[in-house]
Design a protein that fits this description.
With 341 residues, the chain is of the alpha/beta class. The chain folds into two domains: 3-63 and 160-340, QueA-like (3-Layer(aba) Sandwich), CATH 3.40.1780.10; 67-145, Beta Barrel (Thrombin, subunit H), CATH 2.40.10.240. It is 18% helix and 28% strand. It has six helices and 17 strands. It has helices at 138-145, 186-195, 233-244, 254-262, 303-312, 314-326; strands at 27-32, 37-42, 55-59, 61-63, 67-72, 78-88, 91-97, 107-110, 115-122, 128-134, 171-174, 198-204, 227-231, 249-252, 273-277, 292-296, 337-340. A nine-stranded mixed β-sheet has the order 2-1-17-16-14-3-12-13-15. The protein has a six-stranded antiparallel beta barrel with strand order 5-6-7-10-9-8. A two-stranded parallel ribbon has the order 4-11. Helix 5 (303-312) packs across helix 6 (314-326). The chain is globular.
Length: 341
């Protein structure tokens, strides 16, 4: 399959720059993959599509203030560092700018010297491993010096950092938010539980690879980034019991989908585990666990458009996206939502 098979036209003005005041106020495009039908609703109507006995799978990762602005120790020139993942104590994989001027052995200073990053390895993909030097508690220093790493297509400054966190975010470690979950409130989740819906929490720390373009013309040649996940025994059992009792597995976001598909076997049995996944889901993939997907609208030619196309069919997804553009839906991280039934 060619990457251009997953392209669509998106006017720039439809890219949402700020979140809505009310989380549930966004629009909801309902995609019925069996009937090939589209329906326009609001996210506050989501309960109509979730039945008692279903299981809602949520990614409880929390975004850290992973963007650090500092200067190179030798030249004094500006440098930016984005934390991608923790490798070991005080060693993190990062994205460093300007890449050409930040070489092996260089040191980048943040604040008044409270934090210093030493580049100890340059990886083949250009990412750097850095060792941090500091006194005190790293997370506290990061909280005072770091900024929320918004996606590159968002130009507006975020007034309230909590609006780029889900209300159920808990486990710190993401460089980006699992944005499908931004539409949920605690009240909505409580009402779903009262209705008899199971809630399962998985963890997948979202890496920056989510925003990296697919460079291979043939999508089968694309190498996926890897992301760290964790699912405990209780959560795996809840998902398995839901299936056993005839309920549906409703994944909130592509990150939750990647976790459950990674940890499910060909018989559709979910297993607990901790590790890294680089699963790449595109048309032709047979879903082992996911029945329904709640998701935002994704970038043209991205791996996430390919994932939703695998679930609903490429032609129906492109039709849905075309209609969303015509009806001026809000796109990407702070945008509107879609549910694929």
């Amino acid at each position: 399959m060619n990457i251009n098979d997953f392209d669509y036209h998106l006017p720039e003005e439809l890219i949402a720059q700020t979140p809505l005041t009310e989380r549930t106020a966004s629009r909801l495009l309902v995609v019925d993959k069996n009937a090939g039908a589209l329906e326009h609703r609001h996210f506050s109507d989501i309960s109509n599509y979730i039945k008692p006995g279903d299981c809602l799978v949520l990614n409880n990762t929390r975004v850290i203030p992973a963007r650090l602005l500092g200067h190179r120790e030798t030249s004094g020139g500006a440098a930016e560092l984005l934390l991608l993942r923790q490798m070991e104590d005080d060693v993190r994989e990062t994205l460093v700018r300007p890449g050409k001027k930040c070489r092996l052995g260089d040191r980048i200073v943040f604040g008044d010297g409270q934090l210093v990053a030493e580049i100890i390895k340059v990886k083949d993909d250009g990412n750097r491993l850095v060792k941090f030097h500091y006194e005190g508690i790293f997370n506290e220093i990061l909280l005072s010096l770091g900024e929320m790493p918004l996606p590159p297509y968002i130009k507006e400054k975020l007034q309230d950092p909590e609006r780029y966190q889900t209300v159920y975010s808990k486990v710190e470690g993401s460089a980006a938010a699992p944005t499908a979950g931004l539409h949920f409130t605690k009240e909505l989740l409580a009402s779903l539980q009262e209705k008899g819906v199971n809630i399962a929490y998985v963890t997948l720390h979202v890496g920056l690879g989510t925003f990296r373009p697919v460079k291979a013309e043939t999508i089968e040649e694309h190498t996926m980034h890897s992301e760290v996940y964790h699912v405990d025994e209780e959560t795996a059992a809840l998902i398995n019991n839901t299936k056993k009792n005839g309920g549906r597995i409703i994944c909130v976001g592509t990150t939750a989908t990647r976790v459950v598909e990674t940890l499910s076997d060909d018989e559709g049995i979910m297993h607990a585990g901790t590790g890294e996944t680089s699963i790449f889901i595109y048309p032709g993939y047979k879903f082992k666990q996911t029945d329904v997907l709640i998701t935002n609208f994704h970038l043209p030619k991205s791996t996430l458009v390919m994932l939703v196309s695998a679930l609903a069919g490429r032609e129906l997804i492109l039709k849905a996206y075309e209609e969303a553009v015509q009806k001026e839906y809000r796109f990407f991280s702070f945008g509107d939502a879609m549910i694929i039934l």
